[in-house]
Amino acid sequence: MIIQDITILPEILYVVTNDLANQYRIVPKYIFENTLELYVDNSNNGVDIKEELELFLGKSIVLHPIDSIEIEKALSIYYRKERALNSNKSLNLDKGDFLENLLIEAKSLKCSDIHFEVYEDSSRIRFRIDGQLIERYKIESDNYLELVNKIKIQAKLNITEKRLPQDGRITNDSFDIRISILPTLFGEKIVMRLLGQDASDIDLNVLGLQKEELENYLEAVKKPNGIILISGPTGSGKTTTLYATLKLLNETRRNIVTVEDPIEYTLRGINQVQLKEDIGLTFSSALKSFLRQDPDVIMLGEIRDSETAIMAIRASLTGHLVLSTIHTNSAIGTISRLIDMGVPSYLIAETLNLSVAQRLVRKLCDNCKKEASCNPKDFPLNFKFPYDILSYYKPVGCNSCFHTGYKGRKAIYEILNIDNNIIEAIKNNTITELFSKDKNYKSLSDKAFKILAMGETSLEEIYSILINI
User: Fold this and answer.
1) Distance CA 381, CA 283 (A)
2) Which of 2, 208, 221, 312 is the most buried (most CB within 10 A)?
3) Has this prediction a pTM greater than 0.85?
4) 259-277: b or e for each residue (b if 16 or more CB lie within 10 Å)?
């Protein structure tokens, strides 16, 4: 971790709490036995705070004054104020409440996943925030083993099993966490997915759909039967869109059932089933049971195989509204994927209400983004660069965005509304040819380039989307 000429090691971040760091404007530099060296804002009176810090920290303190700008930058990156608001305790590895405080910190930073990783001579903890992994702590190997066992015990897993992958769950009043343990060369890697979010405040109107897109989406949702498919990679917001839809449909006159892996949101009034493949509760077997439960709306977490795809299509054909996700690169690609899975073209044409593709992109921080001239050579080779665009914006980094250059995320959608022309193209297997001639159709790459031109995001954020045109 480098801030110009300052190196701050993750393994010593926990020595200073957020409260102390922000109150005294200090960051740790080095620790050896009972001596702690700190960077301090050169506008502070070093003699006065030295005695106070030795009292608080119980160590001999050596202060290194540096420029205020550098201290401010370090504090905004490593000692975010959100963390301080939620916990006044230091994340000390030697304390028994380290794991609990780590989870509190992760939740306060809106972290979606926590990664615990072990290597030959070190271990680390990383947070996924806004889709990006950020290293937060380095820990000793002995402490890592103890931490793994604590997690296993809380997740009710076998602490003696170190050769096979294990999956578990930690649930309490504050957290609902899915645990995945994977044996690696030097020990067990753990990923904790933070779940248990209440879906009651999710609203379709604020997800990022443009006016016309929202109208087309709502029109498809109003139909009593048929299938709506949302495609995109892991972490693209598909589940959030599905639950915003379920919230809209959630009325006392409807019976709504879902099967998910994992259950990422909870919503009062719908019947949620957790997938358990080890005992035979798969998407397809759950769907068979659902059809005997008198459902109006069925939500499948994902269509993974041919059997599930065909059953979902047939369920939609027999008077049910089916919502699900599928892994493809585009809304048009969903149709080809279903055909590859063995679903007859005529069934797709009869049942598909809407095909949606979506991505999440980070938004540039308005306080520090910097304008740059467009160079066609910076774009993918197969991207048709519009030469009327002269500039776009790049990330810089400031205190407002914790020096990441980005602040928040935005969803972009490609929506394929199924009309008579598309129905005929699906039946005749000419869907690709139809849209290759349609200059008015807006693909994901078109939507991504538009928000780049508007200065909302950077080229590096949408580069992978521009490749998949």
Assistant:
1) 40
2) 312
3) no
4) bbbbbbbebeebeebebee
